[in-house]
């Protein structure tokens, strides 16, 4: 038994699985043999016996490594990503950084009208959205932000979700990172606003469209029913014109097997949910389909595609419409003067039941999910329910799947934010059915993936931002910086050893500065303790935490923040009470961030609007309205309120170079 365990550990190490890990308190933990065997099986390295371990070890040692699929650029090959200095024409970033600012926005939350409604012939071409944000609203936001000096708009992920399952709406649990969420489409772009209004009349959905558009929270099932019905109706009537469009035909040809597979998945998924799922929500996705449909190259799939050509073509048309809209939004940003434009957000994984896992089974780890080990905030660990790439398959293909994904994200963007960028080095992998604590770290080819990232950044003239928050191994951030990848720093966490907030001049340089993220409280919410209220309501406390202790600590932190803002000249006078208006805090925070030496500050749109509720509360699903909150006003009006203009003025003042009186 001891010899077998030793051989098992050696195989795991050779396959990149760490046999031990250290928790946030510095305590070491050994990974169990059962976990090692389960993860090795997921990696297609059976280890149930000594003979299997020996055979898997020999096979692993014989595997060739394919060359990278990234064609070399003109010599010399660059070793750093395209920078913000490159984007602004400021030259070498090591000889002085620009002082840019931008806005971070949840695309789905944007509004294009006030809910007054649709009716044929009314309002000309300015009807508005159908209950969720779309690319036309994004273009409007970009133009309005550019007019006030913004360099970029950081956008929440727009990866493809499940068209047939409106309950799966988290942007960080996509079906595929190669294609787009069709709910970002502006239906008016298909055939014009008046035709959209006529479609609503034909379908009898005018009143429902007005209702969902006016709601403060997105009712995703209702919005999907309205929007999909309208888009399907319009495509049925105008599909022949679209199919004759040379641009559409070019996109279909360029999309090749990948686009065809995605369209087939969407058609099959809708069919399976309609015929086998009473509520339209099939939890196991393609792995629960009849066996003949689980292989995208099977005769059954080919026959289905022939028999359902209309559904497959519709899925392709929707992807074309989404791509056109996103491209137009990015072009609007650039035409309005933004040196960067849109910054895309790349999720760390995909839903293992979705299109990318189905069509790229040889590239994905099926049978394990990504998560995090136990820590002080999550004593049981976390299971994010996402599938990851196989590092062995990546190496064997020259990292083609990763490169393909980068190119998809950068198709209509001037930058990319890589969520949980630590995943380029290692991921906490949990065997299916196991508890989060019963996982292990799996190593990824960091240097190769960084090299591919640099080359794609240069090829697309796109900046790269890494979400490097949390516990990060020593030297990792230096490695990101050496490759020209900007880190991320959040105000709430930038403290000294005594817990005081760092003054602006002590912030690191090669990072993006922000007050908060989608997973953290807004500035107004933090000041009022809204996040603590939610945690108390839902019982989301760590070991030793109570609502009282957290509120006492928050009171101390409010004092610390106000002192830091005052010392920076960003506020004066007495701090507002916790439940008074947080306007002075928001204004001061933006000015404070503007004073940091970082080349880019991202202002969350929620802060510019003065909102108290955060987009997502980790650890919750239905208990909190995650990914459902809409902005209180349409764009571009949202940035033209006195409060928003004042806040942006404060941010711009902080961004001015020292001695600049403008």
Automatic annotation (TrEMBL):
Reactions that this protein is recorded to catalyse: Transfers a segment of a (1->4)-alpha-D-glucan to a new position in an acceptor, which may be glucose or a (1->4)-alpha-D-glucan
Gene Ontology molecular functions: 4-alpha-glucanotransferase activity
Enzyme Commission no: 2.4.1.25
A Pfam family recorded for this sequence: Glyco_hydro_77
InterPro entries: GH, Glyco_hydro_77
Ranges for region Disordered: 619-645
Protein keywords: Carbohydrate metabolism, Glycosyltransferase, Transferase
Coiled coil region boundaries: none
Enzyme class name: transferase
Membrane-crossing residue ranges in chain numbering: none
Domain of life the protein comes from: Bacteria
Family: Belongs to the disproportionating enzyme family.
Protein name: 4-alpha-glucanotransferase
Gene this protein is translated from: malQ
